[in-house]
């Protein structure tokens, strides 16, 4: 049991400011009348402080109420709110773009195409003289009866994409 002293009372040493006041704190004009060692039920009803009176409620709301801003300050506050809204929208749009790009790159991987197997038919007497790979194309050089021809194929699907024939001028 804590030590008790009949002569000591707890009083508020620093008054609460209207901005710093929170629920459960005393009003600056009130003091703590609870003495150490006394219980609430031991006091008479005349010594007990009133729980809440309409006058004290009105006094607290008047202390917390702030006067309205002048019109030029209201315009500034409205402009700042508008700029914050635009900034927030731009931030969300940027995040959505980054997530979208990551998703596209993740789901459209380069190795996702199944390997293709194609047999290209060459005319009789033709022979392949060279092959080369450039970008997403395979170039195959074919010689047939003195005529040179270059055929190109898509690297991923192996489908033909073009044909270039070379001929001598007459």
Features:
170 residues; alpha+beta
Describe this protein's structure:
The protein has 170 residues and is an alpha+beta fold. The protein folds into 3 domains: 8-65, no CATH class; 67-110; 127-166. It is built from 2 helices and 4 strands. It has helices at residues 54-64, 71-107, and strands spanning 127-134, 137-144, 147-154, 160-166. It has a 4-stranded antiparallel beta sheet with strand order 1-2-3-4, with no helix packed on it. The protein is rod-shaped and about 100 Å long. Residues 32-36 have low confidence and may be disordered.
- Principal-axes geometry comes out as rod-shaped
Order of strands across the main sheet:
1-2-3-4
* Total number of distinct structural domains: 3
| CA-atom Rg in angstroms | 44 Å
Strand residue percentage: 15-25%
Structural class: alpha+beta
Low-confidence stretches: 32-36
* Number of DSSP helical runs: 2
Task: Report the sheet with the most strands, covering strand number, pairing sense and barrel closure.
Answer: 4 strands, antiparallel
Percent helix: 25-40%
N-to-C terminal Cα separation, in Å? 122 Å
Number of strands: 4
Helices and strands, in order, run as HHEEEE
The average pLDDT value, as a whole number, equals 75
């Amino acid at each position: 049991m804590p030590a008790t002293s009949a002569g000591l009372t707890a009083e508020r040493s620093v008054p609460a400011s209207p901005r710093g006041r929170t629920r459960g704190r005393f009003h600056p004009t009130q003091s703590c009348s609870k003495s150490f060692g006394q219980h609430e039920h031991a006091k008479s009803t005349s010594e007990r402080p009133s729980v809440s009176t309409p006058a004290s409620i009105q006094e607290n709301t008047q202390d917390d109420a702030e006067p309205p801003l002048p019109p030029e300050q209201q315009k500034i506050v409205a402009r700042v709110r508008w700029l914050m809204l635009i900034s927030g929208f731009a931030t969300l749009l940027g995040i959505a773009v980054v997530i979208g790009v990551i998703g596209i790159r993740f789901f459209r991987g380069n190795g996702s195409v199944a390997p293709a197997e194609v047999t290209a038919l060459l005319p009789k007497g033709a022979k392949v003289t060279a092959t080369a790979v450039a970008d997403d194309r395979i170039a195959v050089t074919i010689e047939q009866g003195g005529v040179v021809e270059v055929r190109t194929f898509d690297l991923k699907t192996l489908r033909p994409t073009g044909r270039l024939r070379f001929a001598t001028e007459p």
